[in-house]
């Protein structure tokens, strides 16, 4: 891992890996969509159960992406390595997109199931909303400071603070009474849902994970090139 912290090594290692990740993501998404539409209706939820195949993976990836952002921020802040900062920055936008998708599909699912688009008193809803705001705050903070070094440090601190919210999101359904049901996948005794819904759900979760990896690697590679171009321009300006 520390060997890949070298930008040149990282670029060489991820050059063949990135298109593979994109290919795996496309294939898994195609299979997942097909399984989602061919799955039977739920006896209680009907066709609205299919929203689960978009909502649950999006929520999971929102947490995973922020975990990547937070860990990268730690290495950027402690070891001050530019590649770690690039990784944190690259995780922010896709993570925010996945979290926004989780909030939107959650509202679409909540209306027929709960009778309301949103419940301000629900701990899971509010903690995911706070997660989205951390993403927005991270990107806004970086954009608001002209000095890129200062912006990276300030954003890294915010990224680390936001890690506190991850266990709150995960265990909110266990710690408080919420409209959300308890965990159905990661629980003692194994998954509680039927196999006809489990297969498309797990496939879509794998597809989202591959998609995030593909986007993340592509964004990090682009960020490395962008910084090298800026450095080259600065050197030419000094020479001039």
UniProtKB/TrEMBL annotation:
Keywords of the record: Cell inner membrane, Cell membrane, Cytochrome c-type biogenesis, Membrane, Transmembrane, Transmembrane helix, Transport
Entry superkingdom: Bacteria
GO molecular function: heme binding; heme transmembrane transporter activity
Biological process terms in GO annotation: cytochrome complex assembly
InterPro entries (UniProt xref): Cyt_c_assembly (IPR002541), Cyt_c_biogenesis_CcmC (IPR003557), Cyt_c_biogenesis_CcsA/CcmC (IPR045062)
Domain Cytochrome c assembly protein, chain residue ranges per copy: 21-180
This protein's record includes keyword Cell membrane: yes
Pfam families: Cytochrom_C_asm (PF01578)
GO cellular component terms, semicolon-separated: plasma membrane
Subcellular location: Cell inner membrane; Membrane
TM ranges: 20-39, 59-79, 91-110, 116-141, 153-176, 196-218
Membrane topology: Multi-pass membrane protein
Function: Required for the export of heme to the periplasm for the biogenesis of c-type cytochromes.
Family: Belongs to the CcmC/CycZ/HelC family.
The protein's name: Heme exporter protein C
Organism of provenance: Brevundimonas lenta
Gene: ccmC
């Amino acid at each position: 891992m520390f060997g890949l912290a070298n930008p040149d090594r990282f670029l060489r290692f991820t050059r063949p890996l990135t298109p593979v990740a994109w290919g795996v993501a496309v294939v898994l998404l195609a299979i997942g969509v097909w399984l989602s539409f061919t799955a039977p209706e739920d006896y209680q939820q009907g066709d609205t159960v299919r929203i689960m195949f978009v909502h649950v993976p999006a929520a999971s990836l929102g947490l995973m992406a922020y975990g990547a952002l937070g860990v990268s921020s730690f290495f950027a802040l402690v070891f001050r390595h530019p590649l770690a900062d690039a990784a944190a920055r690259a995780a922010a936008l896709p993570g925010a997109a996945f979290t926004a998708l989780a909030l939107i599909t959650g509202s679409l699912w909540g209306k027929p199931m709960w009778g309301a688009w949103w419940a301000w008193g629900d701990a899971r809803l509010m903690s995911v909303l706070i997660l989205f705001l951390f993403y927005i705050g991270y990107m806004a903070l970086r954009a608001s400071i002209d000095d890129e070094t200062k912006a990276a440090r300030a954003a890294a601190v915010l990224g680390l603070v936001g890690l506190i919210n991850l266990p709150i999101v995960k265990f909110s359904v266990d710690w408080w009474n919420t409209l959300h049901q308890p965990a159905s996948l990661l629980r003692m005794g194994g998954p509680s849902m039927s196999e006809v819904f489990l297969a498309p759900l797990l496939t879509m979760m794998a597809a989202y994970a591959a998609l995030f990896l593909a986007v993340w690697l592509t964004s990090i590679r682009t960020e490395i090139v962008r910084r090298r171009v800026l450095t080259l321009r600065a050197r030419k300006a000094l020479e001039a």
